[in-house]
């Protein structure tokens, strides 16, 4: 694809001046972030970064309007450095673009499938963060709240998280307004 022609008729062209941009568009690369804890867990599971790139599942591109791109992408590389400000690693995925539907600079969401077993899905409103701890409030048979430290994985949808260890199926937790609850408080249903 050829971009706009920068000089106009009558312009003086100097050596090294950019005339236009030519870009290959048969494939498009997208960058997205993976948190340090996510990358650590993935590498621990598969052995190393090279192996992660080789076995990563197909990646979906979701457009800003909510529609999904019809072709799946694959992870091609990772930055290899944790950004000190965000605590994340930049990951690059390449999507085929045979129909020319993708353009440089487009925005969207990269969706990477993840499977968990024996975990609990909870609303973000049930999660309380206190300093470097994450907890939920469990409600016992006596209707009293007890804080339980948990590890979570945010699903990135702004609504839900997965509790990895620390919660048991069938337990009752405070699902809404947990930030206003404290240990030993009676919870009414």
**Level-1 CATH class name of the largest domain:** Mainly Beta
Please describe the biggest sheet, giving its number of strands, its sense, and whether it closes into a barrel.
4 strands, antiparallel
Give the strand tally: 12
By secondary-structure content and strand pairing, the structural class works out as mainly beta
Looking at the overall shape, the CATH architecture of the largest domain is Beta Barrel
Total of helices: 2
- CATH topology value of the largest domain: Elongation Factor Tu (Ef-tu), domain 3
Distance between the termini: 61 Å
| CATH evolutionary superfamily of the largest domain | Efflux pump adaptor protein, beta barrel domain
- Percent of residues in beta strands: 25-35%
Element-level helix/strand string: EHHEEEEEEEEEEE
- Summarize model confidence as the mean pLDDT: 83
Shape: elongated
Number of domain modules: 2
Cα Rg: 23 Å
Poorly predicted runs: none
Helix percentage range: under 10%
Task: Offer a concise description of the structure.
The chain is mainly beta and about 190 residues long. Helices cover about 10% and strands about 30% of the residues.
Question: How would you describe the overall organization of this protein?
Answer:
- The chain has 189 residues and is mainly beta.
- Helix content is 10%, strand content 31%.
- The strands form four sheets. Strands 7, 8, 9 and 12 form a four-stranded antiparallel sheet that branches. A three-stranded antiparallel sheet has the order 1-4-3. A three-stranded antiparallel sheet has the order 6-11-10, with no helix packed on it.
- The radius of gyration is 23 Å and the shape is elongated.
- The mean pLDDT is 83.
